[in-house]
């Protein structure tokens, strides 16, 4: 037999004693835990709804929870179990309708980390292509476009970076940005992807591809989603039906989306949507006027549509063309030509060759086209790029040489040979005319008489813009107003003599390729950079303090504005303070009074300026009328998107009661409006001269 050593026996006895001690301690812990659980359970059953004037909605929300807490699984996810205390815990810690419970150990939610200073712009576009993902024809189209323009984007980013150095570089921030393209989600129908290969409209996808490239090159960290499931995952949406807030603070500084995505976010973010909507930027092709954006006003005044009433700041909506200064102009890019390409085009243009704007056969159904196409056919060989599968579309006349739907590169080669690019009146405001003009074509379009708007044209009905203030006078108003002859001709297609004369003149006119700076890669990068650096919709801004009065006997302080030297308008007072954070800088402000039939957009345009809605807050004062020698027998504050304004025949002045309704659009023959105008950079209408 083996006799264990005495030392080993002592160790075994010590281990046994330790096990016994541990068992006693575990028993004590369990007893204490059960006791504490009973106390806690007692507390959970004994909560009373607090009566705190700082939380006036608390009692009503508890009543709602009692009746409906089982209506959405998200409440159980956050610990609601039907007891009074669970309601109060949820309403004080997840939502913010009730005061915190004093016996709860609360850990304050960590705020989102501030944006980090960033270094040079990014240049590895292969990383962006990975972020965009696969699985849809629309995504493939966008990636092809980014690849095709990659070198132009990279050169433009280098030029802009040099332009911004050295003073601004330390101030640049790298933001976390979510890009959710809602119209490509299955839940919204995704009608675009199947039509990419069949000649369907590509303008939206062109713009989104360029937005992705610009944001990435500017050095920001992107997440791209085209599915509702991915959106919910990135946002931190709790399981359920969308009635609860997000599980954590929003991890994104900015969200770029569209109207479909906006609706999806509202449905699934609960109260968090209202909290974080100031971070949203809505890509909105045709724009949203303030009268349609304000929910209460739109409902009362008949402006409510399926797309408006979001109560966002109007400049959070970003358009394809700068047709309304109430929104921010996002734009897109067209390909730029180098010197060799420009010279090649000039020497290879065929003066008797025309290309028709319209890839879908339905566009060729326009009434009366036979008449003007017959005239055009007398002078030019007409080419089309209409999609078809097996048989030639019957809508396309036999004398038209139809190439079918062409890849973008081949379509550009066609434009580089053609002299004329002719529109049939639809689609409105697409990217193709700018591409044609950039490739040396003359763009010929029909003049609409009367101009199209929601009052007389079905296309604009239901959209959150009337276009009454800036009616669509042609297929492409931007090309008509901002480019014009010799590159753009707008004529009456119903007047055969005018149409034929235009064709003859165009054929003998030498035109060089032309692309406005704001539609170059550098122009778009510059514009988006300025928006990200300066647009802040999450902090409210107030007018700076007026200058100190010279005499203490003065009852009201002097205005921030002063009469111009020629006494025709108001400018920023030289003695008024200037907030260095104000953007656009207030020095660019000019205040003009409109005619009764003119909106502020037209009033400013006639003076070589652009309306700036962020400046309305400086005009919305009674003393401004006095400075402009306008007699006011009465002055009222009301909600009206035309105010501030004066009804001169009765000497009644009106000030704006609701800042969201400040609008450059709109007019009424009863009123003359006070209009805030500013200067702008040549080729970059979105930015004032000192806005960079």
Task: Write up what this structure looks like.
It is a single chain. The chain is α/β, with parallel strands linked by helices and 692 residues long. It has 4 domains: 45-104, no CATH class; 118-329, no CATH class; 339-514, Rossmann fold (3-Layer(aba) Sandwich), CATH 3.40.50; 561-678, no CATH class. It has 23 helices and 23 strands. Strands 16, 17, 18, 19, 20, 21, 22 and 23 form an 8-stranded mixed sheet that branches. Strands 9, 10, 11, 12, 13, 14 and 15 form a 7-stranded mixed sheet that branches. A hairpin with a 4-residue loop joins β21 and β22 (652-656).
Keywords:
692 residues, eight-stranded mixed beta sheet, alpha/beta, globular, 23 helices, Rossmann fold
